[in-house]
């Protein structure tokens, strides 16, 4: 018999994370290949094939990471080491709160509406604080994918919420702490 419960191996989570991150980073380049925005060309057709795959990969990584965290508790360590979390959440129209990687998994699993946005930034999506601390100049522009989710807490009087997840930060959190 097993000495501990079943869980997903780190390599499996990292594979899912790699595939998802690759898809997200390629999406912007796909959009640049289109003849013009909204054109029903071969690029749009290929992007249409990719959307269900992207949705499935986001949901799979969230569910696997959440299940592993239930068994092993690694995402709590991420929050200790990265207290800014992986995004923000607004509950019932209140102020922004830190969104942990674990809570981001929950919001991905239980959302009722979703959209993906890309934001251009000159700050490194993972190491901005370390760059500042070590006076490292970074003259690059990054396209960071953000998943915007909304939903309602469970129960009759469940409050509405809106979450904004930095997908690069979330993917690296679950890949490194979710197993």
Description:
The chain has about 180 residues and is α+β, with helices and mostly antiparallel strands. It has one domain (about 10-175). About 50% of the residues lie in helices and about 20% in strands. It has 6 helices and 5 strands; from the N terminus they run αααββαβαββα. It has helices at about 10-35, 40-70, 75-80, 100-110, 130-135, 165-175; strands at about 85-90, 95-100, 115-120, 140-150, 160-165. It has a 5-stranded antiparallel sheet. A hairpin with a 4-residue loop joins strand 1 and strand 2 (about 95-100). Helix 1 runs antiparallel to helix 2 (about 40-70), helix 1 runs antiparallel to helix 6 (about 165-175) and helix 3 crosses helix 6 (about 165-175). The longest helix has about 30 residues, at about 40-70. It is globular, with a radius of gyration of 18 Å. The two termini are about 20 Å apart. The mean pLDDT is about 85.
Globally, the shape reads globular
Tally the helices. Answer: 6
Output the radius of gyration.
18 Å
* Major sheet summary line: 5 strands, antiparallel
Question: Which descriptors would you attach to this protein?
Answer:
179 residues, alpha+beta, five-stranded antiparallel sheet, 6 helices
At a glance:
With 179 residues, the chain is an alpha+beta fold.
Topology of this protein?
Elements: H1 10-33, H2 42-72, H3 74-81, E1 87-91, E2 96-99, H4 101-110, E3 113-121, H5 128-133, E4 142-152, E5 160-166, H6 167-177
Antiparallel strand pairs: 1-2, 1-5, 3-4, 4-5
Helix pairs in contact: 1-2, 1-6, 2-4, 3-6
């Amino acid at each position: 018999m097993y000495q501990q419960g079943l869980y997903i191996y780190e390599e499996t989570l990292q594979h899912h994370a790699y595939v998802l991150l690759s898809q997200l980073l390629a999406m912007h380049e796909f959009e640049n290949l289109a003849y013009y925005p909204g054109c029903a060309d071969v690029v749009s057709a290929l992007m249409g094939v990719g959307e269900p795959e992207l949705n499935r990969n986001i949901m799979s990584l969230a569910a696997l990471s959440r299940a592993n965290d239930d068994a092993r508790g690694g995402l709590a360590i991420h929050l200790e080491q990265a207290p800014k979390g992986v995004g923000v959440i607004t509950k019932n129209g209140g102020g922004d709160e830190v969104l942990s990687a674990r809570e981001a998994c929950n919001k991905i699993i239980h959302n009722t509406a979703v959209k993906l946005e890309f934001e251009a930034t000159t700050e490194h999506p993972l190491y901005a604080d370390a760059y500042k601390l070590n006076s490292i100049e970074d003259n690059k522009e990054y396209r960071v994918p953000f998943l915007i989710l909304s939903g309602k807490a469970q129960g009759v009087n469940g409050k509405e919420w809106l979450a904004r997840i930095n997908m690069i930060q979330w993917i690296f959190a679950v890949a490194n702490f979710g197993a």
